[in-house]
Design goal:
single chain, mainly beta, Pnp Oxidase, Chain A, seven-stranded antiparallel sheet, 2 helices
Length: about 140
Amino acid sequence: MITMTDADGEPVGFTATSMTSLGANPPLASFNVASGASSWRAMNTAKFVAIHTLGLNNINLAKKMAAAHEERFLEDDWSRGPHNLPIFSGASAVLIAKVREIHSVESNAVVIVEIQEGLIGSETDALIYHQRAYKTTGATLE
């Protein structure tokens, strides 16, 4: 899950379906976002993002961040973190990253970020989204 702020400092976020490590020195990662996504405009101006890794206990958070963008930050389950980024404390970990590059590809983009720091939450089994279903290692959840 990726969070950031828009040009007015308002929280923006989405559930990313893919994120990968690009290298260790410097620590780089990438994720994809559709240019038609509600978060696209904010992503194009963001200097920093928070990459949240989600665990088994975060299935409702994953669904919320994939639903209507107007409802993603209504609850008090998040707070401001480094660079004023919205941080969901229930995540298993959060990586604070500086946006390095955005590459447009057809109606999507690949965003490359440099990891600046990490925040640790609660350890739990990983939450995976595969073939339009939430899963954990060896099991389909919904």
